[in-house]
TrEMBL record:
One of the GO biological process terms: negative regulation of DNA-templated transcription
Species assigned in the record: Neoroseomonas oryzicola
Gene3D superfamilies listed in its UniProt record: 3.30.450.40, Winged helix-like DNA-binding domain superfamily/Winged helix DNA-binding domain
GO MF, one example: DNA binding
Protein name (record): Helix-turn-helix domain-containing protein
Entries under InterPro entries matching the protein: ArsR-like_HTH (IPR011991), GAF-like_dom_sf (IPR029016), HTH_MetabolicPath_Reg (IPR050707), Tscrpt_reg_IclR_C (IPR014757), Tscrpt_reg_IclR_N (IPR005471), WH-like_DNA-bd_sf (IPR036388), WH_DNA-bd_sf (IPR036390)
CDD domains noted in UniProt: HTH_ARSR
Biological classification of the source: Bacteria, Pseudomonadati, Pseudomonadota, Alphaproteobacteria, Acetobacterales
Pfam families xref list: HTH_IclR, IclR_C
Domain IclR-ED: 73-250
Length: 275
């Protein structure tokens, strides 16, 4: 009678199959030599895994016979994925830790059309009641701290497209100046004319060269001015943003070359200095 594989071997085989499937998906198709190189899996194992994945209907060989590609069946693997649940579970410990360090509430903000929306927050855990009805709250891109952080660090093509949609032509030059100031400063700053009269600073959460989301910190300027907030809270805010960036990189299987080793909101000369 055939001896069943040990538990450790079975788990490793499943992990390798999933890693190989992710590699094929990320590369939009690959040859066997490319898969061996990119996955680090030995060629004989790659061939066996490809045969198994093809038999299961998750990959197929191109008509030319050289490249392997995923099939529509892979979409079933993500059909039960709930992004909001993942974001809430992933960001919760990061936000709670941040709250303990700075004492002011923070939100995870994501782009939605020409506005930026609250998608997760530690406000329920914060003793300072700032806009308690924050669920689904939206902020303008060109005036909010989060919107400015998004625009300042998103790719140029995306920035131009968004500005054309949400900023009148006559105001575009002033907005571009503010975005340049945002990059020099290292964080987005809320326009003081926005209502209600609260303060906010924000930093980007990067996914490669793109902005996955933005992490803000909301405060009361009459209690603590923005200069003191930046000096005291910017470093922990950036640390939290990098932690979120790492989580997004794992979710999207971003390669090592795009891993968030540096925060783009920190100027090169500031990387080892206090904010």
């Amino acid at each position: 009678m055939e001896t069943p594989p040990r538990r450790e071997e079975s788990v490793r085989a499943v992990r390798r199959a999933l890693d190989l499937l992710a590699t094929i998906n990320a590369s939009r198709g690959a040859t066997v030599p490319e898969l061996v190189r990119d996955s680090g899996i030995p060629r004989p194992t790659v061939l066996r895994l490809l045969a198994t994945l093809a038999e299961a209907g998750y990959v197929l060989r191109s008509p030319q016979g050289r490249r392997w590609e995923v099939t529509p069946r892979v979409a079933r693997l993500a059909s039960g994925f709930n992004f909001d649940t993942w974001l809430a579970a992933t960001s919760a410990p990061i936000l709670v830790d941040l709250l303990g360090k700075v004492g002011w509430p923070s939100d995870v903000m994501m782009l939605g059309g020409t506005e930026i929306h609250v998608r997760a927050s530690n406000r329920p855990q914060c003793g300072v009641a700032i806009e308690a009805d924050f669920h689904g709250m939206r902020s303008p891109l060109a005036q909010s701290a989060s919107g400015r952080a998004y625009l300042a660090w998103c790719p140029e093509v995306e920035r131009r497209r968004l500005l054309a949609l949400c900023v009148p032509r006559a105001q575009e030059r002033a907005v571009l100046r503010e975005l340049e100031a945002t990059r020099r400063r290292g964080y987005g700053l809320r326009d003081a004319s926005l209502k209600p009269p609260v303060g906010a600073i924000a930093v980007p959460v990067m996914l490669g060269a793109s902005v996955a989301c933005v992490l803000d910190l909301v405060f009361l300027p009459r209690v603590e001015p923005v200069e003191r907030i930046a000096a005291r809270c910017l470093a922990p805010l950036r640390e939290a943003a990098l932690a979120l960036s790492g989580a997004f990189a794992k979710l999207h299987a971003v390669g090592p070359d795009a891993h968030p080793t540096d925060d783009p909101s920190i100027a090169p000369g500031q990387r080892h200095a206090d904010p």
